[in-house]
Amino acid sequence: MQYRPSVDAAFAALTAEDDGRACRELSPDACRAQPGSFLRHAAALTLTKSADGLIDPKLVLSWLLTTLGAPAIFVGLLVPVREAGALLPQLFTAGWIRRLPRRKWVWAGASLVQGAAALAILAAGLTLSGAAAGATIVAALAVLAVARSFASVSYKDVLGKTVDKARRGTATGLASSAAAASVVIFALLLMSGLVERGVLVFAGLGLAGIAWILAGLVFATLAEEAGATEGGRNAARVALSHLAYLRDDPQLRRFILVRGCLVATALAPPYLVMLGAGAGGVFEALGALVLASALAGLVSSYVWGRLADRSSRLVLAAAGGLGAAALLLALGVSAAGPGGTSWALPVALFALMIAYQGVRLGRATHLVDMAPGDRRAVYTALANTVIGLLLLAGGLVGALAALAGPAAAVWLFVALSAAGGALALGLDEVQAD
């Protein structure tokens, strides 16, 4: 396959390579196609990551359901359905996807389904209200999350076959930066008042659906060679067959307990939205909330990653403590009315999302460094199985607690975050080994 000189030039500029054809791991045909493949990966990921930001269940969909008058239980289910729906199916589908010689079709198809689900959420928001809107949007989000799980399982293999080792991080990093910029622009528009917020939210949902559909079409044009189909294993079966590790390894048990408590940092944001709605200020603060969430990831991920390489145990402890403090701040200002929530709620969310980034990076680093080399896959499958179930259980408990008011659910997450941080101090210092 031949590419225009402009494609080669763009690839060389983005990868800072004079010889854009030199490859370490790709076949000659894949190497020749690499400039176009690199740009397709960057474009498809930029579209999907931007769509993720535009439809963010923690904030955008929580705001939407709140404005539509959906019961609190549906708002509380948004994040656990999204997170567990993207995680648990991977345990059962990875082996099947491994048996397909070309997996780009899985990713492309999953992206099209995500686009259709986003447009279904848009339609529900425009035509429904109350419990009907809540149930329909949560159901559409569940479909979107399951489709995302298929995309997640298939993506790394396609990337490995179409982009060389030295340039994969560049492709994903470029997409992450471009998508972050698009979310920041969306947040600034929400804050500007130039367009009515509801109109912007619905426009964002529509753009998200279109972006996922375009991403699927772009990804389908990748020049992917047939790959190996042997070695596929059902991760859920692997986890169940090695439950003895939970009995025999106290550090694994403690790690899963810590990670389970710290899911509070992921589950709590929708309840901050509900707190703000109760105080009357969240409708004006949506843009600031989205901006705070986007900036938290940009400013903290690198720092947390560096710290995790020194002590993932202390990163998890610090993230738990910071999460509890952020939620206490939100509780403290929720009675202040619109004047308080307009500035303090975004500050609390910013701190909470920094804590969330710390949990993500700390848990990933700790698991890799803690597990013996021959058990990493097993420990990962065990942890993902347990955490997927805990996400669903925690989301349901939080949603039920919210029936007594969002403050009750936030107090629950304060306790979980603090407990997770304290329990993390009992983990081994695995980086010292």
Describe the structure.
- It contains 18 helices and no strands.
- It folds into two domains: 1-227, MFS general substrate transporter like domains (Growth Hormone, Chain: A), CATH 1.20.1250; 233-433, MFS general substrate transporter like domains (Growth Hormone, Chain: A).
- With 433 residues, the protein is mainly α.
- Helix 4 (72-87) runs antiparallel to helix 17, helix 12 packs parallel to helix 17 and helix 14 runs antiparallel to helix 16 (338-370).
Which keywords apply here?
single chain; 18 helices; 2 domains; 0% strand; mainly alpha; Growth Hormone, Chain: A; 433 residues
Largest sheet: number of strands, sense, barrel closure: none
CATH architecture of the largest domain: Up-down Bundle
The poorly predicted ranges are none
Distance between the termini: 49 Å
Mind telling me the CATH superfamily name of the largest domain? MFS general substrate transporter like domains
Highest-level CATH class of the largest domain: Mainly Alpha
**Total helical elements:** 18
Q: Strand portion, in percent?
A: under 5%
Radius of gyration: 22 Å
Please state the average pLDDT score: 82
Q: What is the global morphology?
A: globular
According to DSSP, the number of beta strands is 0
Number of separate domains: 2
> Considering DSSP H and I runs of 4 or more, what fraction of the residues is helical?
over 70%
SSE string, helices as H and strands as E? HHHHHHHHHHHHHHHHHH
Annotated CATH topology of the largest domain: Growth Hormone, Chain: A
Class inferred from helices and paired strands: mainly alpha
